[in-house]
Fold:
Amino acid sequence: MYTIRVEADFAAAHYLSEYHGKCERLHGHNYTVRAYAKGAELGEGGMLVDFGALKGRLREVCASLDHSNLNDEPAFAASPSAERIAKYIFDGIAALEPGLPLCAVEVFETDTSMARYEP
Structure:
C-alpha cells in the first residue's frame, strides 16, 4: 500500500458557539492542513498521485477559507471545529477531483492540536 501526503495552510477566524470556554469568543488560527491519498497500484510514472495535482486541489479549497470568519460558512453550522473543517476540506477536494484516492485530511490549529477526518 502506498500513501502520499501534501500540506497547505490558511489563516482564519472563528468561534465555537457550541462550546463554553475561551474558544467561544472570536479568535484566529494559522491552520496547517495535510491531505493524504492511499492506494495499492501505481499509475503513470510510478506515482500513486501527482503531488502537484493533490496539492493544487488542497490549496484551492484552503484558499476559499483563507482570511475569513469561518462561522460565516453555512457548512459549519455556526461552530467550525477543527473536526468540521477537516471534513469540509476532504469533501471539497473530493468534489474537485472525484477519482482521487483521497483517504484523510488533518487540520492543525496549533503545532500540538489537530483533528483528522477519514471516511
Summary: The chain has one domain: 2-117.
